[in-house]
Description:
alpha+beta
Amino acid sequence: MKMAFWLAFLAVASGFCLAAGDFVPEQAAAQATRQQQQPPPPPNGTQPKDATDKPEKIVAQPPMPPKAGEVPPGPSTSPKPEAALPGTDPLKMAAARGIDPKLPAGAAVDAKSYMIGVEDVIGISVWDNGQLSGSFSVRPDGKISMPLIGEIQASGKTPEQLRTEVTDALKNGYVVAPMVNVSVLQVLSKKYYINGEVNKPGPVALVVPTRIMEAISNSGGFRDFANQKDIVILRGSQRLHFNYKEVIKGKKPEQNILLEPGDFIIIK
């Protein structure tokens, strides 16, 4: 249809131009070709967008206020763990006192009076030197072995005396101004034994001064048929007697003696 239209148009135009005297066939043909190559107009009368048109800016709308009872969206409101206040961190406080926080808590002994013995476990902490710190078991010869220092006598000394000796040994060309702490982690050298008609018989560490009445209480008390009037304490070659019935009535309190390492309490 278009071709027929343009052919008819050219025929009419040719006649008109011939009549006018200025018809140019090449110009007419080129104009017809350009008109065929033009794209058809967009539907519904919309105008094509220019390639140089800039995209429309999107303006962010402010969030709507929350309704009654709603929790507004936002970052998590879970409470953060509180940091330890300065000077209250137990690890730093222990380190400040020269105690290695990795070592277990020591036994309840008096560092100035307790005598270290064989099989005791000693904790030695050297400030800012983890290689020299650790726990050491007292050997049967009464000595312990430490890095750099080597063997050192521990049995027969108090923790304070051992601390002084370790400090002096480290000063001898190993550590400048060492800060040393010595504690007894386990008391295994001093024990008493309670056997017979008690609820918890067996060996008991003699960490603090203990009398016979306390030893019976620590063992859980008597069983039903225990002879409470004639309790025997074996101390080396001695054979001591203790009458529980008399002592609880206030009679002969001198029977309630302090126990010594190696004592055997026999309750029939």
